[in-house]
Amino acid sequence: MYEIWLVINTVYELILANVDITLGILIPWLALMLFTQFKKQVPWSQVIKPTLVAAIVLWFVFFALVPGLTKSSFASVNSGIDWLVVAGLAAGFSGIIAIFIGPAYLLSKR
Q1: Whether this model's pTM surpasses 0.90
Q2: 32 lies in which domain range?
Q3: What is the pLDDT along the chain (110 residues), one digit of tens a residue?
Q4: Cβ within 8 Å of residue 39, ≥6 positions away
Q5: What is the C-alpha to C-alpha distance for residues 1 and 95, in angstroms, rounded to an integer?
Q6: How far is Cα 99 from Cα 101, in angstroms, rounded to an integer?
Q7: Which alpha helices (H) appear in 18-79, and where do they start and end?
Q8: CA dist., res. 13 & res. 26, Å (int)
């Protein structure tokens, strides 16, 4: 139980420390979602496959880019935890972009 509280507290503190980045992502995403909801011509179910494909492609791209973005290299990724961190960061970056791809794809399909 302590571990769950610790994770929730850590995420909360990170959001508070980066509230400008969080709001900078959240507000445009909410605006895009509202605009898409009222202007869409295609059901949301047709967006899932293209968004997942884009997210997977972006994950591979970010997996290759994350060590360079952190001023590191794949040579210094030694342990399993290091590989999991690189994969997790790549998933986070691709997930943030994917939440914008879905509504944008819906708006483009008219």
Answers
A1: no
A2: 1-39
A3: 677 888 888 888 988 999 999 899 999 999 999 988 888 777 888 889 999 999 999 999 999 998 888 888 888 888 888 889 889 999 999 999 999 999 998 888 76
A4: 107
A5: 27
A6: 6
A7: 19-39, 48-69
A8: 17
Domain check: are 63 and 92 in the same one?
A: yes
Are 96 and 90 in contact by the 8 Å Cβ rule? The answer is: no
CB-CB contact of 100 with 29 (8 Å) = yes
Q: Are 103 and 32 in contact (CB under 8 A)?
A: yes
Do 69 and 23 have their domain in common? no
The answer to whether residues 45 and 92 belong to one domain is: yes
Residue 51 contacts residue 98 (beta carbons within 8 Å): yes
> What's the structural domain count of the chain?
2
Please report how many Cα atoms fall inside a 13 Å half-sphere around the Cα of residue 13, on the Cβ side. Answer: 6
